[in-house]
Design brief:
- This protein has helices at 16-29, 51-54, 63-73, 84-98, 116-127, 145-154, 168-172; strands spanning 7-10, 34-39, 56-60, 76-79, 106-109, 140-142, 193-197.
- The chain is an alpha/beta fold.
- The protein folds into 2 domains: 1-73, Rossmann fold (3-Layer(aba) Sandwich), CATH 3.40.50; 75-163 and 194-199, Rossmann fold, CATH 3.40.50.
- Strands 3-2-1-7-4-5-6 form a 7-stranded parallel β-sheet, sandwiched between helices.
- One of its GO terms (cellular component) is cytosol.
- This is Lysine decarboxylase-like protein.
Length: 200
């Protein structure tokens, strides 16, 4: 990320892999390259992490507000191996892509086959008629960091999305405020901010 001057939007924690990643990006690019968004209930010790260690932090009231802000600010969504929270955010951003709310890349880093079960489930759902064949590409997968960078910077808007749905009334009422990638571009432009999710 630092080599490409990409910034990080994440859940604002200081522990585990995401804490290490946030700290490394701050060390390499400075605190402006990291934006953590965290609900007040999850703050450790009741105060935001130190900016010189973990970048800028925005404290919000709820998990829903956290995800909305993360989705607004990010230009691509990347999932690393993790637990329930990671899977929930991955599937929500995929569903938003399916519904035409955004046209941003959704990609997993499938290290050591961690996400194989997700793609097996998708194939089962397609065979069972729950997911249209055309939407099999809603989630991209990379097996290396280099492949991930290539997919994020060149990935076209996923096929099979419901682009006929009109979300403008939701935007006016503030319920869905995710900025959209250019629909008619052949490829997505290089993103300045990645939303990376990894909850254990």
């Amino acid at each position: 990320m630092a080599k490409r001057s990409w910034s990080l939007v994440y859940g604002g924690g200081t522990m585990g892999l995401m804490g290490v990643l946030a700290g490394d990006i701050v060390a390499l690019q400075g605190p402006d390259a990291v934006h953590g968004i965290i609900p007040r209930a999850l703050l450790q010790g009741g105060s935001a992490p130190a900016p010189d260690q973990f970048g800028r932090t925005t404290v919000v009231a709820s998990m829903h507000e956290r995800k909305r802000m993360m989705a607004e600010e990010a230009d691509a969504f990347v999932a690393l191996p993790g637990g329930f929270g990671m899977l929930e955010e991955l599937l929500e951003m995929t569903t938003w892509s399916q519904l035409g709310i955004h046209a941003k890349p959704v990609v997993v880093l499938n290290a050591s086959g961690f996400f194989d079960g997700v793609f097996e489930w998708m194939q089962t759902a397609i065979r069972s008629g729950f997911i249209p064949d055309a939407q099999v590409g809603l989630i991209g997968q990379a097996h290396t960091v280099e492949e991930l960078a290539t997919i994020v910077t060149t990935r076209e808007a996923a096929p099979g999305r419901y682009t006929f749905l009109d979300w403008s009334s939701e935007n006016r009422h503030g319920n869905v405020q995710v900025k959209r990638a250019t629909e008619d571009a052949e490829t997505c432009a290089m993103p300045p901010a990645l939303m990376i999710s990894m909850f254990s």
